Prior knowledge:
Blueprint: H1 2-23, H2 27-31, H3 38-59, H4 62-67
Helix pairs in contact: 1-3
Amino acid sequence: MLDKISLTLAIIGALNWGGIGLFGFDTVGFLFGGQGSLLSRLIFTLVGLAGVWCLTLLFRDSEMSRNTPHMA
């Protein structure tokens, strides 16, 4: 479950960065009171932590994931 939440947050962060790069528009900042607001900074922090967690996906034993039942 933590993997899915982290991946979702990382995707949100990637889309936000894409919006900044392509259009100069920060969606998170726009929706939550600017880049400096406490809520925006909290979301940016959670996205960053999710990215760090997603790094662990790269280093997990693939054999373990093949033997673990997956829930849909």
